[in-house]
Amino acid sequence: FGAFLGMWRLLWRRQVALKRLLFQGGLMLGFTLLTWLAIPSAGRVSSEIQAGIFLGWVVGFYFLILMPLTCLSVCGAMVREEVSANTLSFYTTRPLKRAEMFLLFYFGHIAWLQLLFACLTLMLFAVGALRGVPGLSELLPVFLVAQFLALMAWGALCSMLGMAHHRYIVVGIVYGLVVEIGIANIPTNIANLALSHHLYTLLAHHGPLAMVFRWSTEGTGTAIICLLGGTVFFLALGAVFFTVRELMPAQNEK
C-alpha cells in the first residue's frame, strides 16, 4: 500500500502538470462541445428520436471509441512512458517484484482514469439534461456500473498490449475492429470473446437502451464474471511480459 501511494503521488503530479492539464482540459471541453452538437434540442425532434440519438452517442462514441482509445493511450503507455523518462530503473531498485510493480502501475493509472471518466460522465449527462433528454436518471446507475467494469477490463487489456508490442496503438486498433466490433456482433457464442459483448449485456438493464439496440439482459452474472475474469487474465499476462522482458530506452524509441 505504501508503494502504491508513492506511485500514485508521482502519477498525480505528472497528470496535473500544467501542459498535460491544459491538454486534458481541452480534450474534455472538446468532448462536451461535440456532445452538445451531436444531441439535438428537445424542440427540434421528438423525445424518442432525441433519446435514440443520445443513447447511440453513449454506446457508439463514448463506450466503443473514446473509452478504449483513452485506455490504450494511458494504460498501454504506462510502462513505456517510464522507460522513456528513464525512471523505470528507479522503480526496479525498490523491494518489489516486477509483477507487483506492474499491478501498482495499473491500479494507479486506472484510479486516474476512473476520476477522469467520472468528470466526463458529469459533462455528458449535464449536456443531456440541458438538451432535455428524457430518462437520464434511470440510465445513470447502469451507466456507472458498466463504466467502472469497462475501464477495469479495457485498462487491463491495453496494459497487456503495451507490454506485448511496442506498436500497441496499431495492435489495439486492429484488435478492436476485429474482436470488439466484428466478433462482438456475431449472434453466436463466439461473441463472448469480446469485452464489449458483456458490456452490452450490462447496459441492457436500461430498458430504452436495450430496445434501441435489441440487447438482452440474459447472462448478466456471466457478463460480470467474464469482465472481471478478463481483467485478471490480461493483468496476469501483462505481468508475465513485464517480468520476462527487459525494456531499455532505445528499445522504446524504436
Distinctive features:
mainly alpha, 78% helix, disordered C terminus
Which secondary structure elements does this structure contain, and how are they paired or packed?
Elements: H1 2-15, H2 18-38, H3 47-74, H4 78-84, H5 88-92, H6 98-131, H7 136-164, H8 168-182, H9 195-203, H10 207-213, H11 220-244, H12 249-253
Helix pairs in contact: 1-6, 2-6, 3-6, 3-7, 3-8, 6-7, 6-11, 7-8, 7-9, 7-11, 9-11
Number of strands: 0
Global outline: globular
Helix-strand pattern, N to C?
Answer: HHHHHHHHHHHH
**Main sheet specs:** none
Q: Which class best fits the helix and strand makeup? A: mainly alpha
Quaternary arrangement of the chains shown?
single chain
Distance between the termini: 34 Å
Radius of gyration from the alpha-carbon trace, in angstroms:
19 Å
- Estimated share of beta-strand residues: under 5%
Average pLDDT, rounded to a whole number, is 86
Any low-confidence stretches, pLDDT <50, length ≥5? 250-254
Number of helices: 12
The percentage helix is: over 70%
